[in-house]
Recover the amino acids of this structure.
């Protein structure tokens, strides 16, 4: 099932790569982090900043979707070329960046990431201790929080490790999404199954459509497979009527 949701987007693979262990000693502070800002244009609906650490990178749209990037958006949006600095503050830690702008939302520079010890302890208390501090940088980029970890656990789909929490945050698998997804048609007990459903575009309306067609207690694998093959609730109902019964 994990392979299914990883196939859902190269961006998630890049984020998880940022969290992967390396052979190098684990520094208290990550200083080999760089940034590149790109203006809106082409397929990009908003300007964005790309944060890169070693071979991994993660893009953040500067469109107000993550309020803790507001200071970065304001700094990178200034029209005067020249030196620039901005700070991104998150529960996971602080990303302090400097560099040069050539125009609004176009420039590059270096960053220094300092993780938050209290956040690390809270992760450890929940069995989500990161293997590397780069994992915490990945959590900053996708807004992975203790609140999300606790909310998912409360809904019965507790993240089993830091990568689960990162993937859930990256794909916006929230407690609200889990509650909306629950139906008599779907048995959902694992966060990886929920992540796979979100990666394939399965939502509450889709699952309720399957329930209306008479399906009961399907596994997440079955629901994801039906979604991947383009089976809708309406199609399932039509097929059941043609067959004179209910599939499951």
């Amino acid at each position: 099932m994990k392979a299914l949701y990883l196939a859902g987007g190269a961006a998630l693979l890049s984020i998880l790569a940022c969290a992967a262990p390396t052979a190098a000693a684990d520094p208290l502070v990550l200083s080999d982090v760089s940034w590149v800002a790109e203006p809106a244009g082409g397929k990009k609906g908003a300007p964005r900043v790309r944060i890169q650490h070693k071979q991994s990178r993660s893009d953040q749209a500067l469109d107000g979707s993550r309020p803790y990037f507001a200071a970065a958006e304001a700094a990178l949006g200034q029209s005067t070329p020249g030196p620039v600095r901005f700070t991104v503050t998150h529960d996971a830690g602080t990303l302090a960046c400097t560099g040069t702008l050539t125009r609004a939302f176009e420039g590059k520079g270096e960053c220094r990431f300092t993780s938050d010890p209290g956040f690390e302890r809270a992760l450890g208390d929940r069995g989500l201790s990161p293997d590397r501090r780069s994992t915490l940088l990945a959590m900053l980029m996708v807004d992975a929080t203790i609140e999300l970890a606790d909310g998912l656990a409360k809904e019965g789909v507790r993240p089993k490790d830091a990568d689960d929490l990162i993937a859930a945050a990256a794909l916006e698998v929230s407690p609200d999404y889990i509650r909306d997804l629950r139906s008599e048609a779907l048995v959902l007990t694992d966060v990886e199954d929920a992540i796979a459903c979100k990666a394939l575009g399965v939502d509450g309306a889709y699952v309720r459509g399957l329930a209306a067609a008479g399906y009961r207690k399907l596994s997440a694998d079955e629901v994801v497979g039906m979604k991947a093959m383009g089976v809708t609730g309406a199609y399932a109902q039509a097929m059941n009527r043609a067959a004179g019964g209910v599939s499951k």
Remarks:
- DSSP finds twelve helices and six strands in the chain.
- The CA atoms of residues 43 and 216 lie 41 Å apart.
- The radius of gyration is 21 Å.
- The longest helix spans residues 233-243.
